[in-house]
Design brief:
- This protein has 414 residues and is mostly beta strands.
- It is 14% helix and 40% strand.
- The protein has 5 helices and 28 strands.
- The strands form 7 sheets. It has a 4-stranded antiparallel β-sheet, with helices on one face. A 4-stranded antiparallel β-sheet has the order 5-6-7-8, with no helix packed on it.
- Strand 6 and strand 7 form a beta hairpin.
- The longest helix has 26 residues.
Length: 414
């Protein structure tokens, strides 16, 4: 799966084991980092960690699982399937600051606004913090869920850690004392896989779920402000070959806080909303961008332009601009679009392996068992067997009347 993010002057994408960063403002060679060439974990330390692994069925690889870019764009962190946490500094030039190891495979990363820590959520439900100022310092366990964590974010003032898990729960905890829970945001019917505190609304939380809805919360109180069912917008009818259930895989907001874009996994469209500041927590459907292919990911840049990454070598990225009350595809090739397109095309061998992969959320859905139907079927089978046994038993016994009549007939003894 390919992922993109744009902060400051950088367009950053990752796929497989490679991270690619393109400078949108300057004509320079993209920065490329291959985790296959990263620092390896010492064998003695690796042996100690086997008891804390994710299961014998999963083998270590160099595939990037998640990455995050700090608000200023000065720091980038990634984590891979080999349980590495790699920290970069982008100024004055890209360089790897440190390589540390996490306990479990991670699902999401987020920097604090102060850029002094990076929080890491993992598959076992734990959140660890790693220092940015002390890049060699080991991570510290901050909090834990009883279920796999799928996303983590922070409030803009760094006061709260907000976590979402497979069991539909969103938890709001104090960053300085994570054992103190401020609130729960409850209401989704499937796993919660996308969280966002939108720009311009620091007290709102947007969440996306496998139930096909986007909800808006006042996260400090856990109060739900608004809910949008994407099925009612016709997204589930765009592709008849796609399963009826679908997951909201990405929610992003423009830097000016006016627009919110929502992406559903494996659907060839992006749903745009206008943020209604007059109504508390309200998202008004604006446009649906029909795409030639299902997008991998999307991001807004610092100019509130929308970049959409596609599963195609020839048309690997689309750029949209908001003009005259509509989102319009950028037809002419701008310098930044050309830089990104050429960089991705050069590295296409990295992206090619992720084309057409099946849903990454498929295994997260609840499995419903029809126990009553199974019970009734087994009960019917038992009744039929008992009926056959009784019939067989009655057929083997002699008729009582016939036996009495035979006893009355004198026997010939001569």
């Amino acid at each position: 799966m390919a992922v993109v993010c744009s902060k400051a002057d950088w367009f950053v994408s990752s796929c497989s084991s490679t991270l690619v960063a393109v400078n949108l403002k300057e004509s320079s060679e993209p920065f490329v980092f291959d985790c296959a060439k990263a620092e390896k974990k010492p064998k003695e330390a690796d042996g100690d960690d086997k008891s804390a692994g994710d299961g014998p069925e999963e083998k270590d690889s160099d595939r990037i699982l998640a990455f995050s870019v700090s608000a200023s764009g000065k720091h980038v962190a990634l984590t891979d399937d080999h349980k590495r946490l790699v920290l970069f500094c982008t100024e004055p030039s890209w360089q790897c600051i440190s390589t540390r190891w996490v306990v479990r495979r991670c699902t999401s990363l987020v920097f604090t606004q102060a850029e002094d820590e990076v929080f890491v959520a993992d598959k076992s439900g734990d959140v660890y913090s790693f220092s940015v100022l002390e890049p060699q310092k080991p991570g510290e366990l901050k909090l834990g869920h009883l279920s796999m964590l799928l996303d983590v974010t922070l409030s803009p003032d760094d006061k709260y850690i907000i976590t979402a898990d497979r069991d539909e729960k969103i938890r709001v905890s104090f960053r300085r004392s994570p054992y103190n829970i401020q609130a729960f945001c409850l209401g989704h019917r499937e796993f919660v896989c996308a969280l966002l505190v939108p720009a311009g609304h620091p007290d709102w939380l947007l969440s996306g779920s496998g139930d096909g809805t986007v909800k808006v919360w006042h996260y400090e109180t856990g109060r739900r402000l608004h809910s949008v069912d994407l099925r009612q917008l016709g997204l589930d009818s765009e592709n008849s070959d796609t399963e009826k259930r679908f997951a909201v895989s990405r929610i992003i907001s423009s830097p000016d806080g006016r627009h919110v874009a929502v992406q559903c996994e494996r659907f060839p469209s992006v749903q745009l909303f206008m943020v209604d500041s007059a109504t508390e927590g309200c998202l008004n459907p604006a446009e649906t961008l029909a795409l030639p292919l299902a997008p991998w990911d999307m991001t807004f840049d610092s100019q509130s332009q929308l970049w959409v990454l596609l599963e195609s070598e020839d048309l690997n990225v689309l750029l949209y601009r908001y003009s005259e009350q509509h989102w319009k595809l950028c037809q002419s090739e701008t310098p930044e679009l050309r830089r990104v397109t050429e960089a991705l095309r050069t590295q296409w061998n990295v992206f090619q392996g992720s084309v057409g992969l099946e849903s990454q959320f498929k295994h997260l859905y609840k499995v419903n068992f029809d126990n009553m139907a199974s019970y009734l079927q087994k009960k019917q089978e038992r009744l039929e067997q008992e009926t056959k046994k009784r019939a067989a038993a009655n057929g083997s016994k002699p008729n009582k009347r016939s036996k009495t009549e035979s006893d009355a007939v004198p026997q010939n003894t001569s």
